[in-house]
Predict the structure.
Amino acid sequence: MNLHRLLSQRAADGKPLRVALIGAGKFGTMFLAQARRTPGMHIVTIADLAPQRARESLARVGWDATQHAARSLEEARNKGTTFITEDALAVVGSDAVEIVVDATGNPAAGIRHALACCEHGKHIVMVNVEADALAGPLLARRAREAGIVYSLAYGDQPALVCELVDWARAAGFEVAAAGKGTKYLPEYHESTPETVWGHYGFTPEMVAGGDFNARMFNSFLDGTKSAIEMAAVANATGLTPAPEGLAFPPCGVDELPRVLRPQAEGGTLHHRGEVEVVSSLERDGRPVARDLRWGVYVTFAADSKYVRRCFHEYGLVTDESGNYAAMYKPCHLIGLELGISVASVGLRGEPTGSPSSFRGDAVAVAKRDLRAGETLDGEGGATVWGRLMPARDSLACGAFPIGLAHGARLARAINKGMSLTWADVVLADSEDVRFRREMEAIFAAELGVPGSGFKVVGPG
């Protein structure tokens, strides 16, 4: 509650937080729109593979060209301006930078940047949830060993879910479930970049006239992004996935306490302490009343007669037993809220969510029958979608993570609906592959899970 005061004091002292942004896409651009209006925060540099795109993004959100005309990092630091570059690793290694924001969305780049931050002692805010789902538990451990903060990005749904879970637990409640909302129907798992716009109701004219990324939209629709984000939440909170993965029950905000409670008590959960995503559509396609498509939630238990009475007295919506209640945020502002993470990391040394162990994994599942020798197109593509699994199960069966699926070649044919394993693919050696395999070996040993290599078939 004191972040603005602390930021204002840093501004008054002439010691603003010195921030590097890597990636000037949509999320990064939204952050830039607010950073220029935030006291005590200096965007020293922006690293993007297309520097002109970064300049266009800055112009779009109201930055004057003189504000990003610095010719070096040192000049930017000394004059309070911004330096634009293509060289992200040079940015991470510069003494002009204290905090790095990775908004690339590329898992390999995120791993590379996080490890460089560990090497150079820079805190990192990982907007790149794809990298976090792929290797966040080990990246966060490496960061702690290096004495830096590794943080999820406030404004993105995983960090907002973490905040609600922390609120509930700090108030003494046991969390039944936590997660987010999305638009979901079972047939969306088969969606491709060619079919996605029809599911959104976008006409060809709308698509042609807008700045739409078909693969990104498809990742949200086909369930992949939900799996990735809930893996991040599980790894950061200690909540765990159901054995079958996400069920996507249709649910509006008034039904959260009834739907998101254990099956033994009339709800849909496999167990207390679960991550789950609720759908804004009934299974027949009708809209859910008061849906949570853009928001996040937590359900929690009273577990005492007195607290149940308090729930009733203070107007909480509960299930019929009065024991389960919910809190939620109806929307999230993605990059517009990212400054909360930057301030928390830089001023308090606290992350807005950070992995503490390996509990959830997002694995690749065939969208159709796939032939031996085919090359996978990864997240949001036409060949595979991402399914949430308990990490223990993923390790036991040798499941192949969705975060490595782009460009992988199939060693054998895979039937539609089957989860892929490491034995099913041929991959070139790379830093991200090696780091993920190292993470699996470490956590398999810690969890006592021997690899067995069998395939997993199932929904979710």
In short: The radius of gyration is 22 Å. The chain is about 35% helix and 15% strand. The chain has three domains: 3-155+335-348, 158-184+223-331, 360-447. Residues 452-460 have pLDDT under 50 and may be disordered.
